[in-house]
Amino acid sequence: MTNAYARAVPAQRFHGQIAGVGSTSGVRIVVGSWLRTPLGSFGDAMVETADGHRVLVAPTPEVATCIGATYAFDEVRLEPITVRASRDRWQVSSPSLSLDLTVGGRRPLGRLLRAVPARVASSPRWATVVDPVARVVLRGVRTRGTALEGRQEFYGATDLHAVTALDGCFDGAVLGGLAPVDPPCRFGFSSTPRRPSVTSVVTTVVTGDEAGTLQAETDPNRAT
């Protein structure tokens, strides 16, 4: 079902925010709060345990199929998940995961991102241009790459805030305190920043013939 989905859906854009955090227990978590997507608004969580077990927590089969067509997991859990994201706090609740994040001020990189016009910052071409810089400045972070089934994925970040505190548990075990996202998460070709943060982002996912066309158009070495 995942392979068929990846082949059948040519292009999608997801507008929202991503919170990436590590914990002193070794569990790393990436939470998505998606406001505008082809599937409507939803929240999800990707969890990698200290021993490397990767779990997707998704609210519906459709969301699980969509995310599973792009990212790799050892386990997928379909369960009700609520993500309440405000300016200074994120609260995540599901049968598996309970998470309370305190969000701090805008990072210096966030101020730079805000200076770029939104239409430019969210475009695949811009993600291609800044990818070499992101690799150097933010270890483990990529802004473009190839996901499952040859899908091309572009991350257009538009803002970045610090996460300053964490409280919660996963599968009944206390997560401990806030820690860097280290080692980087292994859900896809890119991790979240090592420093716990909330990133405002527009994610573009392209597959099929459109992927090859867009890849050629955004190739920085392409002759003009």
The largest sheet, given as strand count, sense and whether it forms a barrel, is: 13 strands, mixed
Query: What structural class should be given to the helix and strand makeup?
Result: alpha+beta
Mean pLDDT: 86
| First-to-last CA distance | 39 Å
Q: What characteristic shape results from the CA principal axes?
A: globular
Q: Helix coverage percent of residues?
A: 10-25%
DSSP E strands, number = 13
What distinguishing features does this structure have?
alpha+beta, 224 residues
What is this structure's SSE topology?
Elements: H1 2-8, E1 11-23, E2 28-36, E3 42-48, E4 54-58, H2 61-68, E5 75-78, E6 82-85, E7 89-93, E8 97-106, H3 108-114, H4 118-121, H5 124-137, E9 144-146, E10 152-170, E11 173-174, E12 178-179, E13 197-206, H6 208-218
Structural features, described:
The chain has 224 residues and is α+β, with helices and mostly antiparallel strands. The chain is 23% helix and 42% strand. It has one domain (2-218). The chain is built from 6 helices and 13 strands. Strands 1, 2, 3, 4, 5, 6, 7, 8, 9, 10, 11, 12 and 13 form a 13-stranded mixed β-sheet that branches.
Concise account of the structure shown:
With 224 residues, the protein is an alpha+beta fold.
